[in-house]
Amino acid sequence: MDQLEQLNERIIRRVNVNLEEFEFNTENFVNNSLEYDKMLKFYAFYGITSQHPIYFHFKNSNIAGSYFLGKCYVGRSAIYKSDVRGDELKRKGDTIRYKKDVPLVEDEMITIRDSLLYKTLVHSNSHNLESPEQFGIHNTIAAHYVNIHGTTLEGCFLGPFATVDLMNLHSCIVGEFSYVNAGELFHRKIDPGTVWIRSKNFEFKYKFKKEVLDNFVGVNSSYQPRGIIYDFVKEREQDYEKLFDVVNLKPIKAPDSSAVNRYALIQGKTRIGENVLVSQKAFLENAIMGNGSNAQENTYIIHSNLAGRCITAHGGKIIYADIGKETFVGFNSFLNGKPNARIEIGEGCIVMPHTIIDPSVPVKIPDEHLVWGFIGSNGDVENNTIPLDDLAEIRDTLRMGKMVFKGNGSVFIDAFRRRISQILMTNGALFNKGENRGHAQDDQNISFNTIQPYRTGKRKGLYPSIRIKP
User: Fold this and answer.
1) DSSP string spanning 433-465?
2) What values do phi and psi take at 303, rounded to 5?
3) Strand bridging mode 152-154 / 134-138
4) Comparing C-alpha atoms, which of 175, 17, 38, 25 is closest to residue 119?
5) CATH of domain 2-226+447-468
6) By 3-state DSSP, what share of the chain in percent is helix, strand and coil, each rounded to 5?
7) Is the confidence at residue 245, as pLDDT, over 70?
8) What are the residues whose beta carbons fall under 8 Å from the beta carbon of 334, sequence distance 6 or more?
């Protein structure tokens, strides 16, 4: 165990140096998060398919309970109960656009060095034009249930339930339950509960009231999470852990065009439609997944109906809700309906990342609306939604409660719709007669292979250095 403790000390020092200007010390978080006995309990596993290039290299690291797919290097890092999914990495010969097309000379690889990722999701490909062949996460600590989606990181701390999306961060702190998609940021501290999207044509910004945020996602002095959303996830964590007790499980019944990951949890009367993707660590209970819908990593769909081609982005939670066709539910959103207070969201809606809907009475949101912030009643619907057609008319500034939108509304909506179309295509929702294959078709025949750590001696808790090639 000595070397594992030394590894964590190294990570703490590396991250603290980068955040010295903020007088931010990560030691309390690390020492209060890591339970060394659990880092021995869980095996790590990696997936192999004929559709994805593979290369795994694990060196001087702990990777307990974590899942890897694609091409990944992990060195001098602790990856605990995390998903590192590289099935959308760029390939050799692909091009990126900067004034003119620049081809990649080798396959892109996820490279994690001197970092602690605690129950974190890493997915998609880097948007850093300076290193198109490497999706890098270096000298960084990510807390509970963080989403790192196409974002390169250097010297950062990400608080619980934060999301960083399609950007580059250097020596930054991102507060708990914040969503940031704002290009490249240097030496910035993002307040907790901030939802910020910025491009050259528009900017969307919303910040949760402190009393609301503390109720759903708060942190204590050592940045350990608390609150309604954390309790919701924690109560169901043991159900996931049972999946690790058995290596071979019976496959979940689903159409031939759909994929249900072996490490997804399916309970109750759940129905899976055609072209559906259910990713690892998705939790479905008494759910209806309409044709072409998906449940991405760390999502929960409970007592809910998804009409078809619905997207539930990483960490999204849908409880006692009815979701209309082609509606997008963003990262870490919490749609917390009740048996007598169901949530109904119409067709073609965009539920912004990190939206909280927690009503005590039934709530209905009409078709083709943008939804954001906190909704606890029907009165909040008026202040936290807008018809997409109305937003498309905005050319200057729109203020609604705690939300401020600046710029071109139609460009904002078009950007979201293009991304939704891309997600549907990539996930195989549009598969038909052999055309438009995606993850729902390509992930059906993943073989899972396990790795376990040293159980005794100085290396106790570390995994053997291993390199796996095609």
Assistant:
1) TTBS--HHHHTTT-EEEEE----SSTTTTPBPP
2) 50, 45
3) parallel
4) 38
5) 2.160.10.10
6) 20, 35, 45
7) no
8) 216, 228, 229, 232, 317, 355, 356, 357, 358
Position 39 scores a pLDDT of: 84
CB 335 within 8 A of CB 317: yes
Token pair, residue 218, equals: 């708060």
Tally of residues, the chain: 470
Q: Does the pTM of the predicted model rise above 0.85?
A: yes
Query: Mean pLDDT across the chain, nearest whole number?
Result: 94
**How does residue 49 score in pLDDT terms, banded at 50, 70 and 90?**
confident
Secondary structure of residue 71 in the 3-state scheme: strand
Non-local (6+) Cβ contacts of 285 within 8 A are 266, 267, 268, 270, 301, 302, 303
The answer to whether 233 and 145 have CB atoms below 8 angstroms apart is yes
Cβ(305)–Cβ(284) under 8 Å?
no
Q: pLDDT digits over 252-272, tens only?
A: 789 999 999 988 999 999 999
pLDDT confidence of 311, banded at 50, 70, 90? very high
Domain positions in the chain are 2-226+447-468, 244-442
DSSP letter at 231 equals H
**Phi-psi region at 422: left, alpha or beta (left = phi > 0; alpha = psi -120 to 50):** alpha
Question: How many beta carbons lie within 10 A of that of residue 136, not counting itself?
Answer: 21
> Domain 244-442: what homologous superfamily?
Hexapeptide repeat proteins (2.160.10.10)
Q: Where are the beta strands (DSSP E) in 220-337?
A: 225-226, 259-260, 265-267, 271-272, 277-278, 283-285, 288-289, 294-295, 300-302, 305-306, 311-312, 317-319, 321-323, 328-329, 334-336
Domain 244-442 in the same topology as domain 2-226+447-468: yes
For residues 24 and 16, is the Cβ–Cβ distance under 8 A?
A: yes
The Cα 219–Cα 28 span in angstroms is 12
Lowest model confidence (mean pLDDT) among 29-43, 72-86, 255-269: 29-43
The pLDDT of residue 1 is 65
Decide if 79 contacts 61 (C-beta within 8 A): yes
Cα dihedral sign, 420-160-319-247? positive
Structure tokens at 455: 């159980």
Asked if residue 89 has pLDDT above 70, the reply is yes
Backbone φ and ψ of 181, nearest 5° = -140, 85
Nearest Cα neighbor of 234 from 311, 119, 358 is 119
Q: Residue 246: what pLDDT?
A: 61
How many helices (H) and strands (E) would you count in the chain? 9, 51
Under a CB-based contact definition with an 8 Å cutoff, are residues 350 and 375 in contact? no
